[in-house]
């Protein structure tokens, strides 16, 4: 059955042998491959059924074909049996940038082996919920569209996603399920309308590059869990309305690049910000230590009955505790080997 469908969709010349990688598919005339007749720029092949075909439908080379691409894409995927029997369930890369697409079909979720999907620079206002079923996706680029929201469950099933580009859209928020993308290495969400981040954002333990710049008057604060992004190396928060970095910011020990331009920051002060990322980290680390000490002092005061506690005894206990915790915390922040006394600090951090 699969071979019959393939012969119907591909002319005999194309079905008999695969086109050379990187070459244009001028001999293909069926509606199934109308968009694929564009000049191909990516030499890497994509598996379609039992054969490999390079598929990249983007840029000026496809400009004269884009009025037909929407119809072609709908025809390819609207029929679930054709997706399976025609071999599209083996598709690994699909690049449809700059083709004036206004929607994606629900059956795109049947592309279970898809690893790279690029639908940037189109006219999409929403993504189908079924895109979450593309569990093999490693890279997803939906930038330069008109997206207002992302599918609610997108993060629960895309656990293999490493790079996500959603910049230049109209997103007001990110769904909380994004926090489950534990393989995510890069997230670019600049130039949206984000009002904030999910409270559990710090669960993105693999995140190394984060761009939240140019959300302008909408982005005013970061969640407390932001300090849990311990692998973060590059952070862009420019052109927002952030007044204070979270108290846990000093924990971002691996941070190498930081852009805080065009924010009304008061914490840390601008004179600290102007000295660079290392000074900011040091300042916020000391602030975090002070907060921990104050919290512990309040806890000790609450636990000791007022009648049986003298100022002298309380002061002695506090000084002893501050000495122990200060040494442990300095070692913790500097990355030295932890002692048994760090158990409490691990809980606090």
Overview of the molecule:
This protein has nine helices and ten strands. Helices cover 28% and strands 9% of the residues. With 349 residues, the chain is α/β, with parallel strands linked by helices. α7 (277-303) packs antiparallel against α8 (311-334). The strands form two sheets. The protein has an eight-stranded parallel beta sheet with strand order 3-4-5-6-7-8-9-10, with no helix packed on it. A two-stranded antiparallel ribbon has the order 1-2. The protein is elongated and about 70 Å long. Residues 1-68 and 337-345 have low confidence and may be disordered. The protein has two domains: 2-279, Leucine-rich repeat, LRR (right-handed beta-alpha superhelix) (Alpha-Beta Horseshoe); 286-348, no CATH class.
Short synopsis of the structure:
Helix content is 28%, strand content 9%. It has 349 residues and is α/β, with parallel strands linked by helices. It has 2 domains: 2-279, Leucine-rich repeat, LRR (right-handed beta-alpha superhelix) (Alpha-Beta Horseshoe), CATH 3.80.10.10; 286-348, no CATH class.
């Amino acid at each position: 059955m699969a071979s019959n469908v393939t012969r119907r969709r591909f002319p005999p010349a194309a079905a008999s042998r695969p086109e050379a990688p990187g070459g244009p598919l001028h001999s293909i005339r069926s509606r199934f491959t109308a968009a694929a007749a564009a000049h191909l720029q990516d030499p890497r092949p994509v598996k379609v059924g039992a054969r490999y075909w390079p598929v990249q439908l983007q840029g000026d080379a496809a400009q004269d074909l884009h009025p037909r691409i929407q119809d072609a894409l709908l025809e390819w995927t609207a029929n679930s049996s054709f997706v399976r029997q025609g071999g599209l369930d083996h598709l690994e890369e699909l690049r449809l940038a700059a083709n004036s697409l206004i929607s994606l079909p629900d059956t795109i979720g049947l592309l279970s082996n898809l690893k790279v999907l690029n639908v940037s620079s189109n006219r999409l206002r929403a993504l189908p919920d079924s895109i979450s079923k593309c569990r093999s996706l490693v890279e997803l680029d939906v930038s330069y569209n008109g997206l207002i929201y992302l599918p609610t469950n997108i993060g629960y099933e895309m656990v293999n996603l490493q790079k996500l580009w959603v910049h230049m859209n109209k997103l007001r928020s990110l769904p909380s399920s994004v926090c489950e993308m534990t393989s995510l290495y890069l997230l670019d969400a600049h130039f949206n309308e984000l009002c904030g981040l999910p409270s559990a954002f710090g669960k993105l333990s693999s995140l190394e590059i984060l761009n939240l710049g140019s959300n302008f008057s909408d982005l005013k604060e970061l969640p407390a869990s932001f300090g849990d992004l311990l692998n973060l190396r590059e952070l862009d928060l420019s052109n927002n309305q952030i007044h204070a970095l979270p108290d846990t910011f000093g924990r971002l020990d691996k941070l190498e690049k930081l852009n805080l331009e065009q924010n009304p920051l008061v914490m840390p002060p601008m004179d600290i910000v102007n000295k660079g990322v290392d000074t900011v980290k040091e300042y916020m680390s000391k602030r975090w230590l002070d907060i921990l000490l104050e919290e512990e002092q309040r806890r000790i005061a609450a636990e000791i009955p007022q009648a049986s506690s003298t100022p002298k005894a309380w002061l002695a206990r506090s000084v002893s505790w501050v000495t122990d915790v200060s040494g442990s915390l300095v070692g913790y922040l500097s990355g030295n080997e932890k002692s048994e006394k760090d158990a409490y600090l691990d809980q606090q951090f």
